[in-house]
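Subgroup meeting minutes
Present: P.N., E.W., G.H.
Scribe: E.W.

1. P.N. recapped why we're keeping a running log of single-chain structure predictions: easier to compare across weeks, and new members can see raw inputs and outputs side by side.
2. G.H. added today's entry (227 aa).
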Amino acid sequence: MRIDIITVLPELLQSPFEHSIMQRAQEKGLLEVVVHNLRDFGLGKHKQVDDYQFGGGAGMVMMCEPLANCLDGLLAQRTYDEVIFLTPDGERYQQRMANQLSLKKNLLLICGHYKGIDERIREHYVTREISIGDYVLSGGELAAAIVVDSLGRLLPGVLGDEQSALLDSFQDDLLAPPVYTRPAKFRDWDVPDILLSGHTGKIDDWRYEQALARTKARRPDLLDGDE
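Output recorded in log:
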């Protein structure tokens, strides 16, 4: 999978992809992340990428021309399965969407900044708009890092145990069950006996029951089909 990211602050995207699982995914050649500095396409001596909004109002808007020029250059090089704008008013990002996007080959992410991007870019280039939650960030860079991380770990061969991602929270619309590790007894706190029994079938049943109970208690909306 290749993911291109357009941003005015490429420095914010360096660390998230240079460590841990995302680093290994790239070293294995399973994931390629390419960050493009929008200021390379900025206008004039000062490489301007934003301007005041028509009609007045607080906050600057990312200009149409730099974004269009950057997008045109990238689209001339390859076909993208999705051109995604990260924005608070987009479709809420969920695990099932991550599962779907992880099957794609080429994705292009646009990080908004200031008061957003010129609406004409959204109308003529963007194919999907995503929000990571009902709140506002200073820019789309952190949202882009979250999307890339959530997709990268789903790629076959990235995790040491490929079954691990399938047992995460939100897969099958359930939260993950409790987990324990050694020692079996710490202070007066014991690991449930069933997990020490070695009976795989009964352990699987227990984990499902725990996942269902936790979901009912903490996120009943997942079971109601509201999300």
